Amino acid sequence: MTDTRQDSLAALLGGRGGALDASLPPLAFVLGWLLFGRSVEAGAVAAVACGVVVGAVRVARGARPRALLVSVTLVVLAAYVALRTGRPEDFFLLQIFLNAASALVWAVSIVVRWPLLGVVVGLVTGQGTRWRRDPDLLRAYRVASWPWVGQYVLRVVVFGALWLAGQVVLLGVMRVALTWPLQVACVAVSWWVLRRALPDDHPGLRHPRDGHHPREQD
């Protein structure tokens, strides 16, 4: 029987490739902006071109075209905002709003007892929402979802401060630093919390136990 030590979140949620790829267009924007006389137009072209190339490579490797279309669309929207305002730091404005919205959605999901970590793992493992009938798993997913809220809040604080200061280069650097490295750290912390929250005799993430919803005290 598979236990929580054998079924890690990193294995269930996949590798860091997608998060790493997402950090490349912002880096291309900053490089294009710097290399072509601090031109927002050049930065926008570089970012969109990078996004298209990354998307094409991932599709060729078997990734879902729909998900990559969304990621390229977000790059195009970010470039459009910067072009409209003429401020290079505004390329990162969409990311700030998306991270703020993600933090809010994850926090609300915990409060309403539908923690998104459980929803995602349930979809990946094919168990649907059976985990909600397991009081131990429901509680563990709620607790382990808070690190995800924390990573989004951290990005909002750091990106927001740099955006207000107009630090375009640092925004690009921190966009890379707070993408896949932070996500890897978040998965590790969330996995540790999840393991600590589950009883020792629990059969694991893939084996939710049926039971009545407890009246939670946390």
UniProtKB/TrEMBL annotation:
The chain crosses the membrane at residues 12-36, 42-60, 67-83, 103-125, 146-166. The keyword Ligase does not apply. InterPro entries: UCP010219. Keywords: Membrane, Transmembrane, Transmembrane helix. It comes from the Bacteria. This is DUF3159 domain-containing protein.
